[in-house]
Specification:
By secondary structure, the protein is mostly helical. It has 15 helices and no strands. The protein is globular, with a radius of gyration of 21 Å.
Amino acid sequence: MLNFKDVLKNNLLLKITSINTLVVSIRLILSLVVQRLLALTVGEAGIAKIGQLRNLIQIITSTASLGTFNGVVKYVSEYRNQRDMLKRMFTTTFVFVLIGSVLTSFVVFFCASWITLKLFDDLEYIGLVKLLALMPMIIGLNRIFQGVINGLSEYKKYAKIELIGYILSTFVLLTCLYFYELKGVLFSIVLTPIIQCTVIIYIFGLGLRDYIKTKDLEFKIPFAKELLAFTAMSFVSTALLNYIELDIRTMITNKISINEAGYWTAMNFISKNYMVFSASLFTLYVIPKFARIYTGQAFKKEVFHIYKTLLPLFGVGMLLVYLFRTWVIAVVYPNFLGMEPLFKWQLLGDFIRLATLVVSHQFLAKKMVKSFVLTELMSLTLFYLLSKHLAMNFGVEGVVMAHFYRYIIYFIVVVAVVWNYFRIQKKKSING
């Protein structure tokens, strides 16, 4: 009979999963407390506004770093022992971040009035948006540093950084909520990148210095072609996705009600809390692993290994969330009773999404830009059009129904594209 310690010792994915479980569990408990306080203090309308600001920050995160995060993960994993290649990659990355962050700051600051009206429908929060214009450089550097940690699969350091950063951010948020209510919460969210950057440098500063030699960096872009592919992919998967979420939330607010927009945002917060568990697994384990796999047989074996490890855990967890959904609403979002019908569709969609994301990370690992961009555009277009159509007939529930239907189609398409990729690779190896 196998000892669990022996199984854990020989299974990197299980190691990352077990440490991740501890971090995510603590984050989840803190998040439940915070979300309850927010629901009681700022209500549905406040939750909707918080969702708007978080979407804007995600867009800025993509544009400030020019989407280089997954590129850093991939190339640090591949070239960790090739100093010359790392020098070329980091030189290009820092130039990209400089350009992306300066342009982003410029646009956010000088378009602050338009952005504020788009997000909040009034100019009360224009000062916060202008303050956010100072953050892109810090956000861009955060993404580089996080990319190095993920590329090296430093899952213990990653877990420590995530946990300490989240605890500090939560403390600042609660303090600002106590003194300034909704404005304070939005202010604390804007300050979060500074907290994250400080924690990363404190915990992993020496490790970063081993790989990022600042004296070797020049204002050149010798790795531009390789990283531009990730820029295109990030724009579609992050910037465009968050813009669509902004637009859908605005549509719900205008055509249904801001309370319904708050219910959908709250449901997304719950979803993101358990899906964050998988996010680090993809960058710490899946991308580095897939980057070193070159045959369809090995890829299929690894995908089934991941499925056997992750899907049962997620399936049980999601089933429990569904069964105890009324309790979750009562504890986390008191009086948000309109959320109850959203759970079924959101959870089903997220389960299929997880299965799809495992396979689709092959696009990032092998830099399959065309496949990634086309499938993501198809997925986002489906979500946008289905949401608009179904919301007219089913209200806010139609948006989460669109989430579920979209991922069923997306999963089929992604599997077909990846299968075709390996079929072509096999044919090339036979003929070549």
